[in-house]
Amino acid sequence: LKVRVVRSSPPSSQFKATFQESYQVYKRYQMVVHKDPPDKPTISQVRLVPVSFEDPQFKSSFNQSASLFAKYQMSVHKDTPSDCGENEFTRFLCDSPLEAEHAPNGPECGYGSFHQQYWLDGKIIAVGVIDILPYCVSSVYLYYDPDFSFLSLGVYSALR
What we know:
By secondary structure, the protein is α+β, with helices and mostly antiparallel strands. The protein has 2 domains: 1-43, no CATH class; 44-159. It contains 4 helices and 4 strands, in the order H-E-H-H-E-E-E-H. The chain has helices at residues 13-33, 56-76, 86-93, 153-159; strands at residues 46-50, 112-120, 123-133, 136-144. The longest helix has 21 residues, at 13-33. The two termini are 28 Å apart. It holds the Pfam family ATE_C. One of its GO terms (cellular component) is cytoplasm. This is ATE1 transferase.
């Protein structure tokens, strides 16, 4: 048995060279140990959308996100429909004190508040509300379609 310590951040050449192989081991592990289905969402099914009513992706997915939030709140937290309407959703998960900023040496997406949308078959099945700041990423809230709870999307989101 040979064990290597490979720098993952910033990614070293060894990390890059072994990434796919490591990912396949991780995927097999998740399927065998945690019984994840092989069709669990992949990176290509996750979209990072700025929380801004000026952003076309945010605007076009707003109704679907708000409906999913209501379904989650009523199923998981037993909220009433009036507790999780569109106004409550906007106040709780869309209004942010953070201002969007694009620093020249910052991430491509910039800094600010984002909805990390998990899509499956053209439908949003989970949304992670996150703040991206210069020295950290803060998870604000995660909600998901209870019909997909078997995918452990909260765990997947935290690890991602």
